[in-house]
Each structure stands twice: as structure tokens, then as C-alpha cells.
Write a structure and sequence with these properties.
NAD+ poly-ADP-ribosyltransferase activity; ARTD_PARP; nucleotidyltransferase activity; Ubiquitin Conjugating Enzyme; 5-stranded antiparallel β-sheet; 32 strands; UBC; 30 helices; alpha+beta; single chain; 6-stranded antiparallel β-barrel; globular; 1109 residues
Amino acid sequence: MGRKEFMRDLKDATEEEFPDISNVHRGEDDGAVACTSAFTVDGSTTSVDLVLLVLDLSLYPDNHDCLIYATSDDAPPELLEILEATSQACEGLSVHEMLIQLSAVSRERERPVQADDYDSDDGAFFGPENSSLLEAHKDRIQADLQACKLAGFRIGLYPNTPLFCISIRVSKLGISSEAQEAWNLNPQQYIVCLLHHTDSYVPFDRLLQSDVINPGVQIFVGLCNTYKPALAQARLAIDTGCTDNTDTDSKSQLRPLFIGESLNNLMNRQFPPIVFARARYGLSWSAAELYYNDRQNGLVNKHTDPKYHNDPDDTGSGHASPSLVSADHLAEHLSPTLSSTAAKVISLPLVAMQFALRHLVNCTKFCLVCHCPTGDTFEALKPYVCSNPLCLFQYMALGFGPTVQWEILTQPYVVDLLVSFAYHAAARGSLNHFPTGMGLNVPHLDERKYPLRSPSESPQPSSNNILIGPSTDFLSYIGTGKIDASISLETKVLTISSEPNDKLEHVKKGDFLLLDIGDDRRILCQVECASLPELKFVDERDFASLFSSPLVSTMSLDEARRTLGLHTFDCEVLLWDSDFDSLPDIQKRQTIVYLLGMLPSVLDMQRYLNTEGTKNTGLAKTLPKPVYDLLRWIIASNRSCIVLDDIIEKMEARADERKRLDGIDGLLQFRFAQGAPDKEQRFVDAVRERQKITKNKVPTFYAWHGSPLHNWHSILREGLNFNRVVHGRTWGDGVYMALDFHTSNSYSSKYQSLDIWPQSTLGVKAVVSLQEVVNSPKDFVSLHPCYVINQTDWVQTRYLFVQCIKLVDTQGLKRKREPDAVKEQDPDRQAKGNTQNKKLLLPAPEHDENSDPLVYESDESDDEEISLLKPRVPFNAKEDHCLLDPTQTDFIPGVSHPPSTFRLLGPPPYATSASTRVLLSDLKATYKVQKSAQQHTLGWYMDPELIQTPYQWLVEMHTFDENLPLARDLKDAGLTSVLIEINFSESHPVAPPFVRVVRPKFLPFIMGGGGHVTQGGAMCMELLTSSGWSPVTSMESVLLQIRLALSSVEPHPARLELGQNAARKTVRSYDATAAYAAYVRVCGQHGWRVHEGFQKISQWALQNGPVQE
């Protein structure tokens, strides 16, 4: 929308009234709003003409930068600092909101009013008045953030606020691509750690004064596309612990991590006392966490207990993690404990970021609730809770983990698969892990109707006894305590006739009851009011129509009144009053089968969630509570990553030609990944190590694994292992695999039965997986008749193929033609598919799967923040600075003007964060142009390595028209370019830059020279004065105008002074002092205005010493 929305908002603003703001109108430049404001400074009110300039209208109104400056000549000097702070506060605001902001600060209010103002106790700490408070801690802040920078992190500051951010690219964390997909991470995104100091800056040594939970610093860890989220986003996260996900297109949108709630709970409640214990007692991270949890659990072990000090293998960053992840800033200062002196040099932001990354990168090793190591033998790909039932209860109650709604909306067929696996495992008696500790109240199954089966038998639920419909806290069904009652369909009143009726005392408005009126007829009713012994129900809602499950046999009250007439019926109120945790295992399995029998199909639930008006209620208020909780458990406890590769539309499946394997037809293809994030790296290491020994040209091969359907629920949670004997171990211990699909499929189909989840859209009948295996067969346990491998690090799951009997058409589940490029396979170990013994062909990946992870370099700079730190960190840029065709130009960057022959200036004393941000944005835009155009057509070049401060640019002008005298003179002098220096003031982009030629020297105008170069080397152009400059002029345009001026032949062409030759080292440079004097002189001659910041530029440059020759 951008410009169109800005113009609409501007028009509306001109018709509004704002306190102390008048004459709001469109400014002269595009994106400018002009107005007059009455500012009160030191008790004196002054009217000042202002311009609010949106620097990039394409980003308006969500992510744009704003610059506010005064155009009145008599604006008070104190106003500049106020306008700078207000410019920051106007980032991402609409025209209306910016004018409100300006109106607030014009009268010296305590802090500018935010459009997204929050009612928080510490909200007032955001504002310009904090500059003095932060100034008192400036040296410590500089040292702490510099430590983060030197450790490899990006830093972000929010001027005049006690808010800082530390960030790192996901691609630099060594997380496998499988884990990134499972954790919803993009390698180009940033992990951002926000630290907000509530009273004053909290250094590390202050944190050690006590082990309180809240030491005066709030922490939020999230995900962002940029290294620094927008200020409004950061404030919302700190104030509420939540992110605003309504604007998903905003580049600086702060998003929650997949374990965000768990991780932020850890950082704000447990991190302070844990780091206190570690520093005070000289413990490792694991020992400090164990010590903290022991204390929380009431254990009074002293910190000297050996168990806290015999921890050589700290649960840390995992196998082969990058040094950035495994580094431990705090450990460098423990000897063995932390002295008070050492505490003063430790960076709290760095320790917090390293601690957060420790739990993020290794999240599968820690419980999401108590954060203790899970101790699992299976290295999962997704995090979960430990074996403590209380943790599972809190996990569900606190809403950690994936949401049911999100999974159903985004991956409905994966959810169908997960539920099918759980149903079949329970029905076949192989389910051994149960959702205990969740407080499930379930029906007590009537053995007369539902005789308990042995694990070898398959229970077949009767459709006459299955309920589906809305529910909240209370739902009756088959139970041990039936309550006799009568229901009047005319008055919609239930009268309890049996005594006692205390089991219904907790029924309240909005609850649902199921009434059995006999002859297999049940009525689902919602309570309108409860006044025992009577309950009045509401109608006008057909609950059974919410879902189209084939097992629905329950009437709503409204439907009963229509079909049965307005009569009174004797009935039974059926209770769910059995504690699931206390049931025997066999009865738990039976109960799970029946609860899942009540679950509608996943597509029905998806349609319901997409229905208008159901967004807020969701499934939690629509499904029976035990059924919903069981569904949550099935989804959340899945420790693997599964993604559908094929396309399903209207129950017809077809292949995605980009992803489909060739040679395996008629089966649904899922990508399937297991194992902890570092297991993939261990697999890669094993591949490389064995290839050095075996010398195999192809280091891996692919093989099939088949297992009965009832085993897959546990395989997803425990991995492929050989802990249990299923088919015998004739050929030894290990994972059994085969090259031929039919061999493995025979194991998968061996125990097929009718135990298919009735509501499954897919109708999952059999499953076979495809693994990638280290090609070192001599080290296998067995080779014939199948491969047996006992080293689990040598096996990585890649695909899952599912036989579905409910899809209408699966003929499209095959490739129409062979892939253009296939992955090379060992001809001696070529996997075969299910089509006429055809060899399996895998589409070649976009990059080598066994290569190191891609590292995406940043296209942004945090130089704005770095400029505030000491010592100065040079500008960091990519190596691909430009496109250079040697057949079109003789220019080579840096040859004519080596870096050692000119000066690089330090940061100017007048630098402001507002102007720095604009300059960094201009630098980024200019480099983008430079990297996208051929140098011989562009004609100018900037070396990013020579940008020590954004206030000084050094540019080489080159590849002039060969017919120009200047081009011939440069060639004769052995040069290929002219070196230009550009300096900026703190008023940029309101004020023009100062531009001068550094070398070589040009022939003066009075001697017949041209090119708009003065005798002192300054460029003589009205564009570069206050008379001709516009704040919206881009630097790309400035560079073009300079090159055109140098190429101009009117009134004379540019020529070089004689006697200059690079080989003889006689190329002469201009003196900077002469250039400044010439600029002022020429402006006076032409009547051009010299901008006010010019004097500061000249003083800054001259203080840096003379040009090096």
C-alpha cells in the first residue's frame, strides 16, 4: 500500500486538530508532512515550523523510519535532541499517531505517548529522560555489549531506553535442516534476546547480590527476520510476554519461538538463581541447574555435595556445535568460584544469551517444564517433558508445545497419521506410554457391552455407543454412577429423581450433559441454569451437525423436540467419573480406543476451525475435554518431524513432481526425520570417516524398513532401535532393513487387521520407511538376507510411505517422468521400489545433504549500535562487492589508490543515532545498487572494507568515455579512477554532504580546466549546497550527478595537472583545508547557501590529521 495509504492518512490529518500543532499540510518532498508546533522549553513557548519525513514510503505504515527536523531559522538548540528522540518514537507509526507523538513532546511531557501504550509499571522508563540514567552506566554498557560483539553476536540498542537486544543468525547455530524444519526456523532468521532493565542498568555483579527471581532485568527470547526488532514490537514482548502476529509481512516483526513460553519462563524465573548458584559455588551449568531443582523440591543438600562437582560431561551444546554455541563466557572467570573483581568484567547480556542458546539448541535434552535433563535414551527431534507426571500436567495446563488448532490447520494429514498410529497401537495392545498425570476423567467401560480384550485381540467399538459433540468441563457418558431423572422436552427442564444427587452439584451454566432415554437414543443438552434438583437447558443449536462423523448418533435437544414431540421421558444422566491414571493398562488402552472413536475426522475439525465465529472457541470448547486432551497429548508427544510431500484434493492424491521419488507408486509420501539436532551431524561425520576407509565413491545408500502399524506410535517417540524383539532376531541385534521394498513391506503388512481409526480420512493400513545408511557393509552385523545394523548413528530416516485405503484415487501417486537430476547411488546397493522391480530414483537435492550447513551472511549492519562502543569495530561486508567485467573496463578496485595512501576518519563527535540510522540505510541501498550493476555501466565503486564510519564515504569514479580528455589523461598517468571523499553532517539527509576530490589533481578552471572541480578540490555543484539540496535526494543520484559533472565538457572538459604518474609516484593529492575554503568561496560567488553543519564537518576532518602520502 505504502504511498497510497500515506496520502490518505495525510489528507485525514489535515482535517483533524492536534494540541499545540497547527497548519498540518503536505510538505514539498514526497513522504513529507509539514506543520507548525508550539514548543515549550525552559518556560518559554516558541512556534517552530517542522517537517516529518517518512524515509521510505514503501514501508509505511508498519516498518518505516521517520525523520523530524525544523525548517525555522530560529529553532532553539534544545529542540534538536527532543526531535531526535521523537523521530525514534515515531518509527512504524501512522501520520495521525506521529502528530499525536509530536503534540505530546511539544509541551515537555514525561514521555511521548505511544500509539501502542501499555499499562505497565515500568512503562514510564521508556523515554528521553532515561538518557542521563543510562549515561551513568555508559562505560559498563559499552563493555558488556562489546563482549557480545566480540563473541560473534549482533547487538541492538534502542536510544533513550533501557532496552537492548543480542541476536544471532539461525544458520550460525549448527542446527540441522531437519531440526530447523521441525522447529519452524528459517536459517536466515535471527534468534533475538531482549533485555529490559526495569530500574537502572543491572550489571552482572549486581545480579550476584542475591538469588532472587527478579533482579531488575526482564528477558524475552524470540525470532525475527532482522537482527533488531522494531521498538514497538520489543516493548510489547517485554510488557506482555507476547508478540503481535497480526502483521506477518513486517520485516522487523518479532515472532515467538516454538518453545517460546517454556524458554522465557526459564529465563525470567530460573536463570537468575541458577547463575547465582553457578557463580557463587563454582558449578557447571548442569550442576547449578540440579542444585536449583533440588532446592525447589525441598532437598537441603549443601553445595559442597560431590554430586554437584562430579559432572565432567556437562549437558551443553551437543556434538560438534559451533564454537559460538559452545562458548562459555562465565566459565572463563571461574577459578574455581567467582571473585568480586572478576564479576565486574563479566557481561550479563552475553551470559544470558549463551544460557538461552544452550537450552534452545539442546531443547530436546531438557524437560520443557522443569528444564532438567530428560535422561531419554532416544534422541528426539522435538522437545517434550520428562517422565514426571506433574510436568506433563503443567505442560498441558500452561499451554506449552504445539497447539492443536495450528497443527490441524497446517498439517491435517500428519495429524490424521498420528491419531491413526495411536488408535491402532491401543487397539492392538502395544501402547505402553499413557497420558497420565493430566487429570483425565473418563467413562468406566461397561464390560457387558465392552468386554476387555487381550493385547492380541482387536476391540471393535459399537457405533451405537459413541458420542460426538460440544463439551467443556462436565460431560456424562457410561459410568459407574448413573443418575435417574426425567426430561420434559416441552419445558426443557431435567428433574433429578434419584438420591443423592451431589454428583451434579458442580454442574454450572454452559456445561453439557448426555441423557440416555432408552432404545439407544441419547440427547446432548447444554445447561442454561442449575437449581438442583432441576436443570434447565437451552436449545436452538444442533451440536451433532458441527461434525459429520459417521459415529454420531446423538441428538441435540432441539432435534429431540422436533422428532420425539413435546413429551416427558424417563432418562439416565450418564457420568464420566473414572480416574484414567488409576485404570489398569489394558483398560487404559480400551479407554483410548473409545475416546478416539468419539473424535471427528481431522478434515471435519479443520472445516470447523475455518468456520467464521469459531476462531475464539476452538476445539477446546467443542470436544469433550478428555477427548481434546488426548488429542493434544498425541500431537505434543510426537518427537519426530513429518511433512506431507504429496498433494491431496477432494480425497484424490497426486504427486508433487518436485519431491516425489521415482519407482514407488500408489503410496502417500511423507518426509520423515528423527534424532536430536546433532544426530544429523554425527551421521555426516560417520559418513566422512567411513568413506576415508572404504574409499567408496558413493558414501551412503538407501534401504527400507517395515514394521506393523501398531509399532509406529512408539517408533515416532523412541526411534528405530532394537530394544524390543518383534519379529525375532535370527540375524543378530540391530535395525533390520532391505533393499527391496516388498521384503520390508511384508513385515509391515504381517499383522494387518481392521483396527483402522474409523474417522481417519486416509485410512492408514500399512507404513514403510526409507532410511539413508552409511555405506560400510563390512561393518554390518549381517548382510543377508537383509541388512542388520547395530550402530544407530549410521542410520537416518528420510521418508515414510503410507498405504491409505480411504483415499478415492491414489493413481496419481507416481511420477509422470523420471527426475531430470537424480542422487547418485551405489550400483551394488540400489534400493528397489514397488513397481515391477524398478530401481528407486531420488531427485537430486538442491545442495549436498552431507555438506556443511549454509551460512547466510547478513545484508544489514549494526554499525549504528557499534558506533557507540569502544573500541571501534570495522564495518563488516560481503566479499562480492561488485560485478566487474575485465573485457569492458580496465578498472580494478584499490589499484590506483591503495588504502595506505589516504586517511580513514573516526566517528565524528556530532554523530546522532537518527542520522547514523539514515546513513546506514543509505549505505545499504547504495551497496545494493553497486552489487546489481556492471561496473563499466555504473562508473563508481565503494569498497565496504574502507567504511570505518558511515559519515565518511570513499568512492572511486572510473570508466569514463574514452573520447573524454579526462579518460586519456588518466591513462597517461597510469590511473584508472578518480578518488572522491564524501562527508556527512548530523543533519543528513536534511543537509547536503560535502564532496571533494582527493586525487589526482585537476587542472584549475582559470587555466582551462573543467569538471566542476574547484582549485582546492571541492566539487562546485549547487546540488551540494543548501540552495539546491533536497532531503529526498538519494546517494545513488548524488554519485551519478558527480560523475556527470566530471564528464561535462561545458564550458571546458576536465583535465589533469601535468606531471602526475602512478609508476613514478608523482600523483598529487588535494589538501583538505584548501577544499573547505574553496567550497565556501565558490558558494559565496554563486550566491549559494552553505549549510550550518559544514563547519562541524571541516573541524572533525581536520582534527583527524593530514592526508597520508
